[in-house]
Structure formats: C-alpha cells, structure tokens
Amino acid sequence: MTPYDELLDQQLLEQLGRPGLEQTAAMLGTDEDKARDVVQAVTGVIIGGLARNVQYPDGADALRGALEDHVDADPFDGDVASLTRDGHSILGHVLGGQGTEAAATGLGRLFGVDTGAMMKLLPLIAPMVMYLLATRADGRDLDADALVDDLERERAALPDTRRELLDELLDHIFGPGPGRPGIYGGLPGTSLPDW
Question: Which residue, 59, 42, 152, is CA-closest to 104?
Fold first, then answer.
C-alpha cells in the first residue's frame, strides 16, 4: 500500500505522532484514546464537508485549485497561530461559520468534550487535512473528477456507525443530500470564487 492509498485520518494521526496526540488530549481535557477518536471524527467531518462541496457546480474545480496552494505548506511544522488562521479560512469555505460552530457543538456532545476546545481543534486539523489531500492529489496527478472519487472513497471507508453520525451532522449543516441547499439557503463552501 502506498502512502496515497492510506486513509487521510490514519496519515494525519501518524504525522501527529504521540507528542501531537498528547497535546491534543491536553487541549481537549481527555485521554489519548478519546483524543484519537476525536481527531478521526474531525477529519471525517472536514472530508465529508469537502465531499458535499464538490457536488455543486464548479466545486471540484475550486477545491482542486485550492489544493495547489496547500501542497507546499506543511502544517505539521507550523506554529499554532498561523495554523489557526489558515484553518479558520478553510473551515469558512468548507462548512461556513455557522456550520463550523454546529460541527464543534455536535462533536463536543458526541464525545463529551467542551465545545470551546472543539472550536480550537477544528482549525488546527483543517490545514492538515488539506495538506495531506493536496499531497495525494499532486502525487497521483488527480484532476477534479478523480478528486471527487477519492473523497467518496475516504467517506465510504469510515466505519458504518461513525459515517452515519457524521452524515447526520453534515445533513444538519448542508441540508439532506447533495444538490439541496442547507441552512444557508445555498452552498457555504468551495463554490465561492476566491479560495
């Protein structure tokens, strides 16, 4: 199996390593096992949000263009302040402001973690997901259509229970099913022209 075949949440956990997981657990006020589960769920929400976004006209092309900006920006060596800034920008495109808050609240309830801590974690994880996806897209030379297929493969690989929970959360943010407006009356994501 090549690095590009490995699921993004596994790659992300490997890149974080034990020190990163310890820091995440401390931020969330929990143990490393739960922190690992939370990181995987946050990764799933971001991937799911990207997968919803690319269903809209020009969404896949916009995402493919955005990934080009992230392929050389390794967030695993970045400082927290710049990561957070980049992460808020990514989340704004992927989930929208209200959607990010809804994701933090939903995940916080699911894992028994403070919503404020989730609001700090989400923007730290978002640039990591974008970087790993950008590296994969670049390494495999994925075009927009292949990127859509890859995101769907990631989503389908989630355990059934987790996928159902994340889909329910994403339905709350986007509205049920692709192509239908969510709570914003439209797409809060990559159809915006200025990634």
Answer: 42
